Amino acid sequence: MPQIAIKNDQGVTTAAEQVNETETVIAEEGQVIVHCFIKADALIEKVRIWQSTFLIDNDSSHKSKLIFADNIKVYPDWTDVAFMQNIYFTLIFSPLPKNCSLFHLLEDIPENGGFKTSHIKRNKTDVYQVDLSD
């Protein structure tokens, strides 16, 4: 991530520091942050995420809803992908149950190609890095 200096009343803060501060605030509110990565593929020209993307608790029927998507457009819109460019985006979900220790990310859509990652082990920060490459 590029380091961009932003001046404020307390001095200078880098963009990376701001992201860390934002993640801390979101995690304290119980929301779950999932940083997603898709490896470059010559066939990928566009990507999008559907609002029907959930985090599903492995041991219950609980589904955490998608609240916000950054750096990827939400259906029906598409995000253009430059030729052979890796794709990075962030998804923010409503909280998981306190006793959840394992969950899945599922984009539940009425067509082929939905994102799915199984068996994500819960951590204390509720901030995750997920590779969605096929």
Topology overview:
Elements: E1 5-8, E2 11-14, H1 15-28, E3 32-38, E4 46-47, E5 53-57, E6 63-70, E7 79-80, E8 87-93, E9 102-107, E10 116-121, E11 127-131
Parallel strand pairs: 3-11
Antiparallel strand pairs: 1-2, 3-8, 4-7, 5-6, 5-9, 6-8, 9-10
Explain the overall architecture.
This protein has 134 residues and is mainly beta. It has 1 helix and 11 strands; from the N terminus they run ββαβββββββββ. It is 10% helix and 42% strand. A hairpin with a 2-residue loop joins strand 1 and strand 2. It has a 7-stranded mixed β-sheet with strand order 10-9-5-6-8-3-11. It has a two-stranded antiparallel ribbon with strand order 1-2. Strands 4-7 form a two-stranded antiparallel sheet.
Q: Please summarize the sheet with the most strands.
A: 7 strands, mixed
The structure class reads: mainly beta
Number of beta strands: 11
Order of strands in the sheet with the most strands?
A: 10-9-5-6-8-3-11
Strand content: 35-45%
Mean pLDDT comes to 86
Dominant shape: globular
Q: What is the radius of gyration?
A: 16 Å
How do the helices and strands follow one another from N- to C-terminus?
EEHEEEEEEEEE
Count the DSSP helices. Answer: 1
Q: What portion of residues is helical?
A: 10-25%
Q: Extract low-pLDDT stretches.
A: 1-8
